[in-house]
Specification:
- The structure is a single chain.
- This protein is mostly beta strands and 451 residues long.
- The chain is built from 3 helices and 27 strands.
- It is globular and about 90 Å long.
């Protein structure tokens, strides 16, 4: 008898919110924990980290993501077995007027909405030149703060790499497929997926057949982690098993190679005569990951009230004040809304945190018009925000005895931070929706005091 599920399994995903098959590269599963991978069997030594002579004439090099003396449960490092050590290269020189190093120093307390970041259709722009700062706070030399970029690029490069000494980078793909090449292996990242590249790991992002656009958040403080679940239990939200990390892959190529190195908020570069993607094997607990947001398991109120958006946190990077995030990556995934006698959209709010939002596909539940894929909003510390007038009227008349089915066409997200964001000169002047504030101006006064 034919398997009735077999035909369904062969169907390609129809949209961003469908779970995507992972067919291009091989991966290991799990966000945390020790892993080991070899592109050539035997490249990782048994027992020894630094044997007198490494297998196949490789060099042993440790990359420390935390201090040596961090507690074991938070200590992060990876041992790499490389064709040549990272120390071998020409002198570093500063890259002047680099786009990604533009300062974010424009103070703006107003609610902001930006139209979609323009797709880079002209010329030949690669990853590093496609990163446009929008907002941020803090200081990378003090390892405290964040910086938010929107990116658009249309060209690949097989002889470049980027290393960020300032922080981890979280990449949110909105338009176009990415091929993320890292020292530890390769990641395929499509719209609706994210990638996290930790501080210090060399990588490059190439386009797969066209223009790419999306969002990046750089975190100076520490490292991203899956949030604790508390009384939710052992399962739910972003499950560790659904994060994928690369398997070892290397190039043994003698070629002119350029490495960009971000340090102290500035960009430097150096050249070398070999590919730096030369790790033949590795082991450790410090590595890039990718995650399909369609795999997120949301938890929500099932009787009444709209709960705080923190229940949709995918990843968090905490400050030294427990429970206060340098950056929470929050999504607004498809989900049933069943709360009775409840105003179901996000409530009106003033927040001690900064809320920078992006739209991956479709419409956002609190504002069905104006907030477009590839665009962004910023509601800064203590700036009032919430549903627009149309959204308020619609939700106030909704029959809440009926469940609301999820829309598989919609997916938005938020970078939420305790830091007070300032803007770049570019984002303060370009793509700004000057009528955004008007979306609340027609909210009526409904107050009727008792007679």
């Amino acid at each position: 008898m034919a398997d009735p599920a077999a035909k369904r399994r062969k169907v390609e995903p129809a949209g961003v919110n469908d779970v995507k098959p992972q067919t291009k590269y091989e991966y290991m599963t799990g966000y945390d924990g020790e892993k080991s991978s070899e592109a050539i069997k035997g490249a990782v030594p048994v027992m020894y980290n630094t044997p007198q002579v490494c297998p196949f004439g490789l060099y042993a090099e440790q990359l420390s993501g935390t201090a040596f003396t961090k507690p074991r449960d938070t200590n992060r490092r990876v041992w790499m077995y490389k064709i040549r050590p990272s120390a071998v290269h020409d002198e570093m020189v500063e890259v002047m007027d680099a786009r990604m190093t533009q300062p974010v120093d424009v103070v703006c307390p107003r609610q902001r909405r930006w139209s979609p970041f323009p797709l880079q259709k002209d010329g030949s722009v690669t990853w590093i030149d496609g990163l446009q700062p929008y907002a941020g706070a803090g200081e990378p030399t003090m390892k405290a703060g964040v910086k938010i970029y929107l990116y658009s690029f249309n060209a690949s490069c097989t002889q470049s790499a980027f290393q960020n000494a300032d922080g981890d980078m979280l990449i949110v793909a909105e338009h176009g497929e990415l091929d993320v090449v890292t020292e530890l292996g390769r990641l395929q990242v499509r719209p609706g997926e994210i990638a996290v590249v930790p501080r210090g790991i060399k990588y490059w992002v190439n386009t797969v057949g066209g223009v790419c656009r999306g969002y990046v958040c750089e975190v100076f403080d520490g490292h991203f982690q899956i949030p604790d679940l508390g009384p939710i239990g052992a399962n739910g939200l972003a499950n560790s098993r659904d994060f994928l990390c690369p398997t070892a892959w290397y190039e043994d190529a003698k070629t002119d190679f350029k490495v960009y190195h971000k340090f102290g908020g500035k960009l430097f570069s150096y050249t070398t005569d070999r590919s730096v993607f030369d790790v033949v094997g590795w082991h450790g607990n410090y590595y890039p990951t990718k995650y399909d947001l369609a795999r997120y398991c949301p938890v929500n109120a099932v009787r009444y009230d709209h709960l705080d958006p923190s229940i949709f946190t995918v990843l968090t990077c905490q400050t030294n004040d427990p429970g206060t995030a340098a950056l929470d990556f929050v999504i607004f995934p498809p989900r049933y809304m069943v709360q009775q006698n409840t105003f179901r959209p996000p409530y009106y709010h003033k927040n001690c945190m900064s809320e920078f939002m992006g739209n991956i596909t479709g419409a956002y539940e609190a504002k069905e018009k104006g907030f477009l894929p590839g665009g962004a909003t910023l509601h800064s510390c203590m700036a009032g925000h919430g549903p627009d007038a149309g959204g308020f009227e619609k939700a106030s008349k909704l029959d809440t005895m009926e469940p609301m089915k999820p829309s598989l066409k919609d997916l938005a997200f938020m970078f939420e931070s305790t830091y007070i964001f300032t803007l770049s000169d570019y984002s303060s002047k370009n793509n700004v929706d000057k009528d955004y504030k008007k979306c609340w101006n027609t909210l009526p006064v409904n107050f009727k005091p008792p007679q």
